[in-house]
Amino acid sequence: MRGRNASTHCLYFIAISDRVHRSNALSPNHMAKLTLSDPMSKAPFPPDHSAVPEQSFQGRAFAQLQAGRVQLFGFREIEGLEELWQDLETNGTCGPYQRLEWIRSWLTTLGQNAATRPVMVSVHARGRPVGLLPLAVTAKGTFQILTFAGQNYVNQNTGLWADNAEAEFDPTELLAALRGLAGKIGADLVQLNNLASGPGGSDNPLYLAACIPSVHPLFETALSGSFDELFRQTHKKESRKKLLRKERGLRESGAFSIEKASSSLQIETALSAFFAQRSAREKNAGIPNAFGSKAEQDFVRKLASEPDIGTAPLSVWSLNVAGKVRAVFLTVRTASHLSGYAISFSEDDLSVYSPGLVLLKNVLQTEMQTGGLLALDLGIGDERYKRSWTNPVQLKDLVCATSAKGTIALTALKALQAVKTRVRRSKKLWPMVRKMRQRLARSSK
Q1: Residue range 246-251: mean pLDDT, rounded
Q2: Which intervals hold domain BioF2-like acetyltransferase (predicted)?
Q3: Total domain count, the chain
């Protein structure tokens, strides 16, 4: 294929790639528990009993590998790692999507997929733990790929790290250990996507020589001062007036409320609307829906309610007018960071008032008034509303092969990623992809 015909085929592939990527979305029939000892497992871990460490904490590891000062231990379960996990969450660096309860929710829902084998990796240097990496080996076609646990359902990844962990080892040692452990547990390729920097822009210890630029930037901004100051800094006077007029229009259209769900009924009402709105968006505009399967929806429900609603990893906000949920915003809040996980809105008679944008504005205002916030991110994916509040920040992907088959996959992945990046950043090509998605959505109705 050459010329315009080749370009058209390329854009078509990118337009459907997210759909293809999710073609293995879980259904109840795909749920199965994998164990190393199960001879009928579709993709069991290779036995490696000689690799069991001697220390009591490390004695349950099913695999280990050492490279210089770095030693990695792989575990099938979280049990026994909670104390270290909570210490790193509290006293070290931990992103919003590697917290203990987030990973627990993933393990009991999406992590049960027969094509997914969780592996929790503790990182040791000079004989002491300095990090934790919640990972999983996932089958994609004939390839086995080591990724972050739930990588396709989060906006950024960091791992968990003790302060100044990178000073305890050489980056080449960590890369060699990761590649070696991945190969030992049967992975052909390491693909740790959307690596974000640490607090204040400090380097992530996973920023290694094998990193390449991620396709999607993270939309993030530092916070200081009040919400009113942020609103003035990010929106021109006319934009502020326009958004406030839309909010007034919603308030005048019937009984108006913005709620942060605090009961099981409120959570279920808002999430049912969220799932329906995201599904409608996919059908009408071709926007890929990451929450379409039962397992995906169970994952979100668990995030919003476990271990209890008051301390659950995910907060569920809704904007309601005239007895209907018009928009839903899912957020993750740590002590100093607010992360926008996902947003949805209804396409009805009140869409002209942009209920999603009004909800976002009010959530930011409420959260900033509680105090303590130093940073805001609205996730990945370039949307106009994100640029109105935040700025794009380049993320990195750590990719390396561990086998000859993995080398083939790595070459193809880098080539596809380069094309996707070029299309995403093109003011001409990306609108063509979006229009193509819309046509595909309409033709599939």
Answers
A1: 98
A2: 239-387
A3: 2
Compare 41 and 86 and report the one with higher pLDDT: 86
| The two structure tokens encoding residue 116 | 């997914």
Task: Give the distance between the most distant pair of CA atoms in the chain.
Answer: 70
**Are residues 260 and 208 part of one domain?**
no
Q: pTM of the predicted model, to two decimals?
A: 0.86
In CATH, what number is assigned to the domain containing residue 272?
Answer: 3.40.630.30
Q: For residue 54, is it within any domain? A: yes
Residues 369, 245 within the same domain: yes
Is residue 91 in a domain? yes
Given 322, 341, 373, which residue is the final one in a domain? 373
Residues 48, 323: Cα–Cα separation, whole Å:
58
Identify whether residues 202 and 251 lie together within a single domain.
no
Sign of CA dihedral 239, 260, 333, 356: negative
**388 in any annotated domain:** no
* Token pair belonging to 396: 């990195």
Q: How far apart are CA 237 and CA 225, in angstroms?
A: 19
Statement to judge: residues 142 and 102 lie in one domain: yes
Which amino acid is it at 34? L
The reply to whether 369 and 401 lie within a common domain is no
Look at residue 95 and give its three-state secondary structure. Answer: coil
Residue 30 has pLDDT above 60, yes or no: no
The verdict on 192 and 267 lying in the same domain is no
For residue range 368-388, what is the model confidence (pLDDT) as tens digits? 999 999 999 999 988 999 999
pLDDT higher than 80, residue 16: no
387-404 pLDDT tens trace? 999 999 999 999 999 999
**309: containing domain:** 224-373
Do residues 146 and 191 touch, judged by C-beta distance below 8 A? yes
Same domain, 146 and 232: no
Measure the CA–CA gap between 63 and 58, rounded to whole angstroms: 10
Please tell me the distance from the alpha carbon of residue 210 to that of residue 396, in angstroms, as a whole number.
Answer: 10
Q: Cis check for the bond before 307: say yes or no (omega within 30 of 0).
A: yes
Residue 59 is predicted with a pLDDT of: 65
Same structural domain, 72 and 114: yes
